[in-house]
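Sync notes, pocket subgroup
Present: LS, DG
LS reminded everyone that the earlier model was apo-only. Rerun requested with cobalt (II) ion included. Inputs:
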Amino acid sequence: MDINQSLALLAGLSPAQFMRQYWQKKPLLVRQAIPGFQPLLSRSALCKLAAREHVESRLIVQQAKGWRMKQGPIPPRSLPPLSQPGWTLLVQGVDLHDASAHALLQRFRFAPDARLDDLMISFATTGGGVGPHFDSYDVFLLQASGRRRWRIGQQKDLTLQPGVPLKILQNFEPEQEFLLEAGDMLYLPPGYAHDGVAEAAVGGDRNATDCMTYSIGFRVPIRNELAAELLHRLAEFSEDDVRLPRLYRDPGQPATATPAALPAGLVSFARQAVLDALKDPRDLGCALGECMTEPKSSVVFDEPQVDWDSGAAKASQAGIHLDARTRMMYDGAHVFINGESYRAKGADASLMQQLANQRSLSARELRKASVAALALLGDWHDAGWLRQEQNERPDNDN
Ligand code: SIN
Ligand code: CO
């Protein structure tokens, strides 16, 4: 992606300008971010996804007696009738299940993959929404069809209503209001209060149009959780022999009259254990890469439909592309894929970095792979992490 090229998606800003001026700083309203945008999934396709195991979904219904929330899977028969106002169905991670949703998410890869999360799609009947709230991550709210009225505000008071099954602000103080139509998009930085309510809309055919909103969401590591996860992985990297673990020893421990007090020697033993785990900065990078590429617990990779054609791979007659569910990143010494790390250097490292950035390699690019790299790609293929193109041949690869 050319990060200096002006994009309609970002109201004529280049990704470089957007990141400098708006990212994590202030909202941006983009009229016709994607002109003529058509929903990628019909309402019924969305409902089918919401009914599936391993797909995160929620149904939120606003009633006279308050909010009701049901976690998925949500069978279609448990959805309220379309004539009932004030309900919404939200499906998370649609990019993992639908190729066009995955392709849409790729347009936002001007932010690092370590930050990009998923595409959530919501359908709402008139008056439907999730209530005034704030998110802890950046979000682009793209109106896919119909209309939604957004009210937003930069309030300090983020107190939530008690006893409600979802996060609703107790005192919402909107400062700005925008009516979004299909193709319009609103960017909000983390912590910005917002409330989007579906409005009735009719299409060119005079039929009611579904209110569908696509949220391009980002991941935000939480410091303490990240530290806990990293330390856990770092301890696993330790070269200590598991049959001969390094044990705390205290031959100098005197008899104590205060048995509940922590021994000072144990405190230094613990400190040294943590410092030793952090000693090699490459290990920290490795743990971080594994952690950031770990697939969500709901992700299940499909068995490959065709066998890895090692002949074609060796002769590089077929390109490859990563499965939509695969997370692949790298640092100066490793490549990371779906929670695993591999040391890489030289030409193979460059090729793997290219695969991670492009999410694909053409037959021509693959020709640069060493035998060891091809074997690794074969393993990843067998795990369902990448696919081999079927039709590519060297002659038509330019
Ligand atoms: C929605 O699509 O209704 C909710 C999106 C959000 O507020 O983050
Ligand atoms: Co939100």
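DG: The pocket of succinic acid (ligand 1) is lined by residues 88, 122, 129-130, 135, 139, 141, 194, 196, 213, 215 (CB under 6 Å).
LS: The first helix runs from residue 15 to 21.
Action: DG to write up.
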